[in-house]
Sequence to fold (218 residues):
Amino acid sequence: MNELINEKIIAIDGPAGSGKSTIAKALAKKLNLEYLDTGAMYRAVAFVSIKKNIEIIDEKQVLKIAKEMNFNFEDGICLVNGYNATKEIRGPEVTRVVSAVAAMPTVRQEMVDRQRLWVEKKGGGVIEGRDIGSVVFPKAKVKVYLTASEEVRAERRIEQEEALDASKVADSIRKRDEADIGRSTSPLVRSEGSIEIDTSLMGVEETIKEILGLFKWN
Ligand code: DC
Fold:
C-alpha cells in the first residue's frame, strides 16, 4: 500500500454502542472523506450464510461466501449481492451469529484485504471497526479508541434497534464484547498510538471537536 495514503486514514475502534458509527460518519462528512463500516461487512457475510443455510461453524463454507460476496455500502445503504440488506444485517438473527463469523481467521483475512483495497481506491477514509488501528491500518494518521459505560452502550443500542427488552440487549452486547475481546485472531484491543475517548457523557459535537483537536488536517 502507498505509505502516503496513511495520512488520509482515520481509524475508529471500540466496542458495540461506543458511538463509532455516529462519530465516524460525522467526521467523514466534516473532512470530506469516504466512510466504511467494517462491521457491516462481517454482518453481510453472516446474512448470506444464514440465507444459504450454512452452518456458521463451517469456516470453509463461510469463507466461500465471503469470497464470492458482492458488497456495496454507500450513503447508509448496504447492498449484498445486489439485495438491499440494510435492515436485515442489523436484525437479531445476524447479530446472534456475527461474532462467530468475525472470529474466523480466513474470513477476517478476506475482509481485511477488501478494506485495504477500498481505501486505496477511495484515497483514504474514515474506517470503523474493532481491528482497524491494530491490524488493518496500524499506521493510520489518526487512531481513536471509543469507549462508554455498559449502561450507556446498552441504552444507545436499545434506541437504535427500537428494542423493548433492555436486559436482553445488555446481555447480547456483553456476550458480543466477550467474543470480540476474547478471540485469538485480531481481538478488540486499544491499539498502540490510539487515543481513548470515553463518550458516556459526551455529545456527538463535543466528541468530534475533541478528535479534530488532536491533529492538523491538510
Ligand atoms: O460494529 P458491529 O456491531 O456492526 O460489528 C459486528 C460484529 O463484527 C461484531 O461482533 C464485531 C465484529 N467486527 C470485527 O470483528 N472486526 C471489525 N473490523 C468490525 C466488526
